[in-house]
UniProtKB/TrEMBL annotation:
It is found in: Endoplasmic reticulum membrane. Pathway: Steroid biosynthesis; zymosterol biosynthesis; zymosterol from lanosterol: step 5/6; Steroid biosynthesis; estrogen biosynthesis. One of its GO terms (biological process) is cholesterol biosynthetic process. It holds the Pfam family adh_short. GO terms for molecular function: 3-beta-hydroxysteroid 3-dehydrogenase (NADP+) activity; 5-alpha-androstane-3-beta,17-beta-diol dehydrogenase (NADP+) activity; estradiol 17-beta-dehydrogenase [NAD(P)+] activity. This is 3-keto-steroid reductase/17-beta-hydroxysteroid dehydrogenase 7.
């Protein structure tokens, strides 16, 4: 039976590399749905995939995860087209207006935390967030809440007795508990909305397993490592492309010490691709699956325990349900 796989943020970077890898493994028994906000780029990605896999079944779906109405209409469209969804990759993400703290970077270079700093970006990256037209913090809405609402809307095609479906979140090594606050889940008051949203996805994945495993729905999180994509190039927007190229030997050197430097989208998609082949029932809900690349360039996936607990995940889940109910109420009022 054909497997239906939906990937959000599939038009570039790690999402597109995942699609390419899935089709390279099996281009005929998959129905791949590229869920993207920019349809022009989505069409370009689709054309590229079909050039290398002419027999593949690739469909497009318009989805802006930062917009409540877009998520609801995309989910409606999925339910019309498919009666089940086997894999939902929750990959779309932003890190807007990143500020690179050069002083903290150089200080970190000569500290005992140098490897952690280089591997996780801890202490050197902050962002300026925005507010969406729905009144939500943009990073929270894009990276987490839009995906949460999508899952809720897609329950009828994700939850079936006697069959499993799998959610796979692209989280980050930058998901720090210290950036997340249960009293400020949208991260209105802080300067690390990205880290907060990624920690939130780790917590949510755990809560989803608690609430949905009995209905055949399983959730896992991965970290792609440090990958050169438009998201990472955005950290230093004024840095010319040739300087990034000059930095590559340094990055390969760093990879000798921290295998998190996966660098290419293909390598970064290793854990996403690996989980596609796993039985979701055998996966540990408290673990994050890391894409890693050795100094010699070999890819592998390593499970590492997450810094999450059931109690916090439950409180967070209840807060998301409350926010979902508020958002739906507002939407109804708008429509009247
Ligand atoms: N690169 C890294 O080192 C790294 C490390 C850890 C985690 N990650 C995570 O990996 C995921 C993929 O990022 P990437 O590195 O591959 O960067 P990327 O090339 O910029 O890909 C991000 C994707 O998300 C999409 N997207 C952004 N906002 C969206 C929205 N509101 N609705 C729908 N789609 C939206 C983008 O679409 P548009 O073309 O429309 O912008 C793009 O397809 C993200 O969740 C990111 O946080 C990346």
């Amino acid at each position: 039976m054909n497997k239906v796989v939906l990937v959000t943020g599939a038009n570039s970077g790690i999402g597109l590399a995942l699609c390419e890898r899935l089709l390279s493994q099996d281009s005929e028994d998959l129905q791949l749905v590229l869920a993207c906000r920019n349809m022009r780029r989505a069409q370009g990605a689709c054309a590229a995939l079909l050039t290398s896999h002419p027999k593949a079944q690739v469909a497009l779906l318009q989805l802006d995860t930062s917009s409540i109405s877009s998520v609801i209409s995309a989910a409606r469209e999925v339910k019309l087209r498919y009666n089940r969804l086997d894999y939902l990759y929750l990959n779309a993400g932003i890190m807007p207006n990143p500020q690179f703290d050069v002083k903290a970077f150089f200080k970190g270079l000569f500290s005992s935390n140098v490897v952690t700093m280089l591997a996780t970006g801890a202490g050197i990256l902050t962002q300026k967030d925005d507010v969406t037209s729905d009144g939500l913090q943009e990073v929270f809405a894009t990276n987490l809440f839009g995906h949460f609402l999508l899952i809720r809307e897609l329950e009828p095609v994700l939850c079936h007795t006697g069959r499993t479906s799998q959610l796979i979140w692209t989280s980050s090594i930058n998901a720090h508990r210290s950036a997340f606050n249960l009293e400020d889940v949208q991260h209105l008051r802080g300067t690390q909305p990205y880290s907060s949203s990624k920690y939130a996805s780790d917590l949510l994945s755990l809560a989803i397993n608690t609430h949905y495993n009995k209905q055949g729905l399983f959730s896992s999180v991965i970290c792609p490592g440090f990958v050169m994509t438009s998201l990472t190039y955005g950290i230093l927007p004024s840095f010319p492309a040739f300087l990034w190229t000059l930095l590559m030997p340094l990055f390969w050197l760093i990879r000798m010490f921290t295998n998190n430097f996966t660098l290419t989208p293909y390598n970064g998609a290793e854990a996403l691709f690996g989980l596609f082949k796993q039985n979701p029932e055998s996966l540990d809900p408290q673990v994050k699956y890391h894409s890693l690349t050795s100094g010699l360039g070999n890819n592998y996936t390593q499970p590492r325990k997450m810094d999450v607990d059931l109690e916090t995940s439950e409180v967070f889940y209840d807060k998301l349900l409350q926010l979902e109910s508020d958002v739906r109420k507002k939407l109804k009022e708008k429509q009247i």
